[in-house]
Amino acid sequence: MKKNDSKMGQIDFILFATIMILVAIGVVMVYSASSYYAAFKFNDPEYFLKKQLMWAVVGSIFMVVAIKIDYHIIKKYTGIIMLITMALLLIVLAFPAVNGAKRWIPLGFANIQPSEIAKYTVVLFMAKSLERKGEKVKEFFKGICPYLLVSGFYAGLVLLGSNLSIAAVIMIVTVIILFAVGAKISHLFAIGSSLVAAVGALTILEPYRLARLMNFRDPFADSQGKGYQLVQSLLALGSGGVTGAGIGQSRQKCLYIPEPHTDFIFAIIGEELGLIGCAFIMLLFVIFVWRGIKTAVTSKDMYGTILGIGITSVIAIQAVINIAVVTGSMPVTGVPLPFISYGGSALLFNMVAMGVLLNLSRQTANKS
After folding, report:
1. How far is the C-alpha of 130 from the C-alpha of 303, rounded, in Å?
2. Measured between alpha carbons, how far is 123 from 174 in angstroms, rounded to an integer?
3. How much is the pTM?
4. How far, in Å, are 30, 69, 164, 199, 283 from residue 203 at the CA level?
5. Under 8 Å between Cβ of 119 and 317
6. Is 226 in contact with 205 (CB distance < 8 Å)?
7. What are the TM regions of this chain, as residue ranges (predicted)?
């Protein structure tokens, strides 16, 4: 099924504007959060700004291209994308670990993180397959197990690189999609319970994960050791108050929070922009989810509906987990804040996915 670009409707402007505002905030806050660290380590306060801005521009270009290409075309290449993703997840294991995890493939000019592709690959597979599944999705072995096996396979490959957080995101998104297409609640409850048990077991069996869990209960008990990062995050959020100290005025970014421009950038936002800034960003994510779900449910076909729900869920789950971690609501884990945390490959693949979602918004059922 192909459509001429001229026959499509207009994109969802609210969704588009929300995405671009988040990306713009990300570029500004990456610069603010990283300037001191970059000056100390690379003798260039703008080191991370230049990279993030470059990827934001490249990502925007890819997003515009994706907006103009009929999302149905992706269906033809789903199998190839799955094979490429699998190969990349295996290739990454051949490279040395960074901070105890094998997550990046160095390309010289940039690093690629295959797990960022895996999240969307699973969504593409489920959208293509579930479109044909129909009422069979209510059956456990024929309807649910195949998707658990495929998603579990990719999550397992991600887990081999010591990335439990993204593996969990993949499985959570899988359950959300299955729920959206009509799988039985009893089946999903059993799956959810099993996933919680699996995550618990993987946490207990890995000493550093267990240490994170124990320190989450009372990070101040070891404020200079295992609980250090969370304690510094809470201090940053607390010192920001309602209005914040102002852009660039964070103290915790001055080598107190390790690499403050990455997973804990929300803490710097809280310190510099205060409760108002944090609430605004959370509001933007709420608007994104609202428009993403609206786009999905008004799609002309089941493929578009599942694709929209999956893409929206990937961003939403990551945002919830990241903010929960930074605010001390759940144990520390390595999930970046979408569009805002520093990371070239994450921003690029998220922007491509946004292009697909925006293209879907051009072809909703209430448009000609």
Report:
1. 8
2. 8
3. 0.91
4. 30, 42, 9, 6, 32
5. no
6. no
7. 12-33, 53-71, 78-98, 164-181, 188-205, 264-290, 302-327, 339-360
Q: Return d(Cα 107, Cα 102) in angstroms, integer.
A: 14
Residue that has been written with the tokens 């149905």 in this structure: 72
Which one, of 125, 182, 183, lies nearest residue 149 by Cα? 125
Mark the ranges of the chain whose per-residue pLDDT is less than 50. Answer: 1-3, 368
* CA separation for the pair 144, 284 (Å, rounded): 33
- CA dihedral over 58, 61, 67, 72, signed as positive or negative: negative
Compute the radius of gyration of the chain from its Cα atoms.
20
Give Cα 286 to chain centroid, integer Å: 15
- The DSSP code for 292 is H
Q: Is 108 left (phi over 0), alpha (psi -120 to 50) or beta?
A: left
Structure tokens at 106: 């160095």
Q: What is the pLDDT of residue 141?
A: 78
Query: Residues 6 or more apart from 218 whose CB is under 8 A from it?
Result: 227
The answer to whether 306 and 360 have CB atoms below 8 angstroms apart is: no
d(C-alpha 258, C-alpha 265), whole Å: 10
Helix ranges (DSSP H) in the chain:
13-42, 47-68, 78-91, 114-133, 145-160, 164-180, 185-205, 207-217, 228-240, 265-297, 302-326, 344-361
The pLDDT score that the predictor gives to residue 2 is 44
Distance CA 332, CA 215 (A): 9
Residue at 150: amino acid letter:
V
Report helix, strand or coil for 273.
Answer: helix
**What is the per-residue burial (b if ≥16 Cβ within 10 Å, else e) of 150-176?**
bbbebbebbbebbbbbbbbbbbbbbbb
Strand, helix or coil at 155? helix
Residues forming a β-bridge with 360? none
pLDDT value, residue 368: 41
Matching residue, tokens 């993949």: 170
